[in-house]
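[audit] Reproducing an earlier prediction to check determinism. Same input, same settings, fresh worker. If the tokens differ from the archived copy the diff job will pick it up downstream; this log only records the rerun itself.
[audit] input (473 residues):
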Amino acid sequence: MNRKNVGKRKDKWKIALIVFIETLFLAMISALIFFIKPYCDTHFQKGTIINGIDCSNLTLEEAQEKLGSFNVTFSFQDGKIYTEYGYNVGIHLRNTEKLEEFLTSQRPFGTNNEKQFQLAPEDFEVDEETLRNYMKLFDELQENNAKRKQNAYLILNEDGYVQIVPEVYGTYIDFEEAVQTSISSFKNGIYNVNLALLCEGEPEIQKTSTVLIEKRDALNKILNTVINFTFKDGSIVTLDHEMVLNWIFGDITQSNLQERRIEEDLSTYVANLEPNLKKFVDDLETKVNKLGSTMEFVTTTGERVTLTVAKGHRDKLDTESELEKIKQELETGETITREPIYSRINQFEKFDSYVEVDIENQTVYMYVNGECIVKTPCVTGNVSRGTVTREGVFYLTGKYKDTVLSDNKTYWSHVNFWMPFDGGIGLHDATWRSRFGGDIYKTNGSHGCVNLPKSAAKTIYENITKDMPIIVH
């Protein structure tokens, strides 16, 4: 065999080997295409990420299910957060059309080889019934667990003073509103739902309200004020907390005290005081008048007597000034002790200028600054005729010279000095009498006046004043 034949034989083997290898490669490619293409047509490539979720090697159905496994959170005002997969709250893809587009683009001979995809919010839908059933499990959405918001308000406390009850921040959330808010968020691609924003929240009126504070302080000042009124006999009348409390709020008892809310305007409660204060002042006036109706007096002869003071000359309360003074003091919140405000007051225990008519001893005395300047016998009202001179404490109502006294029926008497003190009864000279004193008054007394010698009447006339008591006993 020559070299030439050997060479030809080797070339044939080379050609046959190449043909075999090519045939085997084509067969392998064909087998690969035949067996692998169907898998690629139905599965996403490795490394495929859709909406941030790894969908490697998943079918359309598997990817559709997994795309609902993203976290959804529901936040509440107490800091509580509920976290759940989207598919458990009813969020799922409307259909697989978009996923099919993504998958098609990854198939062999596809338009591109993208592995990162993003679905739009409108590609998802919410099953409302599933969402509702899930949200019904939230304690915060149970109406009996929620607090309704409440404004701060005023009440009377157990001590009978006004206090502020703080506001309550509402935790109540309307369930239907919570569901619709969640659905709206999901449709906008927002999966962290802050339901705390739906709480009733902050009340309109809080404990720091200037209106509440000023009203509380004003009422408590009134309620805290105590006024002690001291009288000449040493007695005390007190306007105290309990009295004012009942005037402002009506009859207060222990059972209804805690339930009493202060809801009216301050002016309304202050107005409640007005008629009660007037009655209180009227009662003070009655007491003043009663205390001033009598006086203790030690006569010139040393006898202690109790005398009635004529109504027009008794102590008198200045009711208008007293009422205004009390209103002013009620705004202070202080304890005050004082005398009432008098428009007239008789300081009998201090006076040292007066006229004394002693009926029993038929004597008249006049004291000026503690000095007796007149001591004279007199004749008082006729006992036998029943025209006795009335006992009591009186004051001069006038002074007249050279006048005629008459009843226009039985007598006409000229006098030089006329000093009335009890209606038509008074002191005057009686020049028609030659004697005074003794028992004359019992059968031959006056019509009620105090008859005096002219000289004594003149001295008294010249020294007597309207603020000088005339004491008849």
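[audit] rerun output stored. Observation attached for the diff report: Residues 156 and 162 are 5 Å apart (CA to CA).
[audit] end
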